[in-house]
Amino acid sequence: MDGRWDARRHALRVQGRDLLQLWLLPGLAAVLPWRWCFALYRRLARWPWLYRAEVEAALAGAQQRGWLAPAEAARWATERRLVSLVDHADFFLSRTRGDGWLRRHVEVRGQWPAPEQPAILCTFHWGAGTWALRHARLAGMQAHMLVAGLDSPAYRGRPVMFAYGRRRVAMIARELGQPTLDTSAPLRVLLDCLQQQHQVMVVLDVPADEVSASCEVQLLGAPARMPRALLRLAVQRQLPVVVFLCGIDLATGRRWIDIQPLPLHDNVPVLAADLFGRLDAAIRGQPTLWHFWGQAARFWGS
Fold first, then answer.
1. Residue 120 in contact with residue 240, Cβ under 8 Å?
2. What pLDDT sits at residue 286?
3. Best CA proximity match to 54, nearest among 22, 31, 30
4. What is the pLDDT of residues 285-299, one digit of tens each?
5. Residue of 74, 89, 75, 81 lying closest to 25 (CA atoms)
6. What b/e sequence results for 87-106 when a residue is b if at least 16 CB atoms lie within 10 Å of its CB, and e otherwise?
């Protein structure tokens, strides 16, 4: 009996934490002016219990890779919590703010390809990318985001997190104005989109154990493995590849989107080196904006 009660209490604590961290605190962005909300988030980011498991995993991964000195741990933890708050808050901002919010709070550098140009649009789990989706749609892109299914073990026994994940996927389709594509979809589904002069959008830095084909790249001075299937498609079809990064000014809460078309490559390793060189530079510039420090072993294998 005591064991069942302890399990129930633990489950309730998990659901309460998910409710607070994914819905209630980020949801403040829906009702507060962004300037006030971001100032509050900067204060909340000092609370050690906020996103505790995620932050501890991120710090351990960064320390393992030699990217975090012990004296910097407190600053890193605060910045990681702030990045998580902003990233989750964008779900609520996207539902309650119009296009004028984007023009006021987001600086855009570069241009998307022509709307009728089939292309591969690539980004990474770095920063907060929601407003890039809105901007791509406003620029005429007809992009379909590749999205993994919600059958991950991480959702098991966590209905609050699952509900958030499901609505977040729906947000992607709403912001882009096009249905998402499952990452397990056959190649012909992607080809159909491209043949309709649409674009395929992908978040490229996914651990190699989640994909069927990977290639080795240099990332932060060491060999890492990343997905290669879309890169091979881009090379074979000579499709334009565009990289976009979505940064956060952690002092002011302002955002920026940097859109960079890559030259056409006829070699997958060269294209991969070009693409992941952009991720390398982004992480080196603002390492706490990378969301996957906690998964470091799955990229570098140690």
1. yes
2. 97
3. 22
4. 999 999 999 999 999
5. 89
6. bbbbbbbbeebeeeebeebb
Residues with Cβ within 8 Å of residue 85, at least 6 apart in sequence: 25, 26, 41, 44, 45, 50
Q: Per-residue b/e over 159-181, b at no fewer than 16 CB within 10 Å?
A: ebbbebbeebbebbeebbebebb
H/E segment holding residue 243: strand 241-248
Task: Using the Cα atoms of residue 269, residue 274, residue 276 and residue 277 in order, give the sign of their dihedral.
Answer: positive
The torsion angle over the Cα atoms of residues 100, 105, 108 and 112, rounded to 10 degrees, is -40
What is the span of the domain harbouring residue 104? 2-300
- Rounded to whole angstroms, how far apart are CA atoms 13 and 291? 24
Q: Is the pTM of this model over 0.90?
A: yes
Q: Please name every residue paired with 259 in a beta bridge, in sequence order, or none if there are none.
A: 244
Interatomic CA distance for residues 51 and 34, integer angstroms: 21
Helix axes of 229-237 and 187-195: crossing angle, nearest 10 degrees: 40
Overall number of domains in the chain: 1
The first and second tokens of residue 192, run together, are 């159909």
List of residues 6+ apart from 262 with CB closer than 8 A: 240, 241, 242, 243, 271, 274, 275
